[in-house]
Amino acid sequence: MKSMYIHIPFCKSICSYCDFCKMYYDEKMVLTYLDALKKEIDSVYQKEVLQTLYIGGGTPSHLSKPCLTKLFKIIDTFPFEENYEFTFECNIEDLSLLLLIFLKEHRVNRLSIGVESFLEKNLNFLNRYHTKEDVFLKIALAKQIGFSNISIDLMYALPGEHLDDLEEDIDFALSLDVSHISLYSLIIEEHTKIQIENIKPISDELDLKMYQLIEKQLEHAGYVHYEVSNYAKKGYESIHNLTYWNNNTYYGFGLGASGYIDNVRYSNTRSLNHYVEGNYRYQEEKISQELEMSNEMILGLRKLVGISLDDFYKKYGKRVEEVYAIQDLLDAKNLEIEKGYLRIPKDKIYVSNAILVRFV
Ligand SMILES: C[S@@+](CC[C@H](N)C(=O)[O-])C[C@H]1O[C@@H](n2cnc3c(N)ncnc32)[C@H](O)[C@@H]1O
Ligand code: SF4
Q1: How many domains does the chain have?
Q2: Half-sphere exposure at residue 314, Cβ-oriented, CA atoms within 13 angstroms
Q3: I need a labelling partner for 133 at 20 to 30 A (CA). Which of 54, 253, 282, 347 fits?
Q4: Contacts of residue 107, Cβ cutoff 8 Å, sequence gap at least 6
Q5: CA of 18 to the centre of ligand 1 (A)
Q6: Which residue, of 222, 244, 266, is where some domain finishes?
Q7: Whose CA is nearest to atom 5 of ligand 2?
Q8: Which of 214, 244, 274 is the last residue before a domain boundary?
Q9: What is the pLDDT of residues 301-343, one digit of tens each?
Q10: Beta 230-232 vs 180-185: how paired, if at all?
Q11: Who's near 49: CB < 8 A, 6+ residues apart?
């Protein structure tokens, strides 16, 4: 076990599109939650040396100083490998000199920042309350404090968004010169404000054009497209997220978190009451070898490099072609093999879901 995810489900305000496990910030509730979180971690974590730790949310950066101190009292005891990656998710509004110094002093070496867009009309639609100027100031500040590994999240395919708008967003994002950029096409999730308001998605045709524009501009700027929605400067691919896509095990702690330990995939409850009472788990599934191989394919083929055929054989004692009939996919150029890797060709990654269903 080399990776751990910790979920902090509290936010100052709720975004119109958000389907994550989150609730309004309440200081007393946060302190109670952190007690329960410590109990969950203490009961499961075997003190292995961690390669990656990811604190996500919700909005971990919104925690007050007493709450942050309480959270890091738990984390400060974790042993890390020499080349560890410790990511802390932040919203722009929360980034202050004091917070950044605190995170730096407590071993955080990667920030994942929800920028979403630089354009006022997009930010209004998403219910996000920062400005383009805030983004530039805060990211410059983070760099000044010494954070060299910064990832930003952007969203596109918003209703009314044109290719020109996206191009503007991409230009601003590139001018930040950060090491990692994730770009997500808007999903209209059930029970979100935008779904209740009956907002309609943009056309598939425009969505594809946007996807292609992103790939063209980011690659031109020197970023490597390494996963469906993720781009990194060479050497800055997210080690933590690669744990998921490589189908490796990881701890997941906190409300609504999921994890994969000892051949069991689990999700925690989304009920705060259940969680603070110590009833952490909501669902557990023992992973058979058949399911493990299926996950290996579905997760691994999200990476542009694909999956190593040798590694698959070493892990399962079977060749991919013995387990799955893939010849027709190869013939139709929906899959290709290069240098021992099976992958979805770059021009088909956009429709990867349609190909991945074959491995379900
Ligand atoms: C785990 S969330 C980060 C949560 C964090 N509190 C924030 O808002 O930045 C990671 C990213 O997923 C993206 N995302 C969230 N909901 C989405 C949706 N409905 N459709 C597309 N992307 C979404 C956003 O870019 C978000 O920053
Ligand atoms: S998108 Fe992030 S900040 Fe917004 S409500 Fe969801 S978790 Fe909170």
Answers
A1: 2
A2: 5
A3: 54
A4: 76, 80, 84, 86
A5: 7
A6: 244
A7: 14
A8: 244
A9: 999 999 999 999 999 999 999 999 999 999 999 999 999 999 9
A10: antiparallel
A11: 2, 79, 80, 81
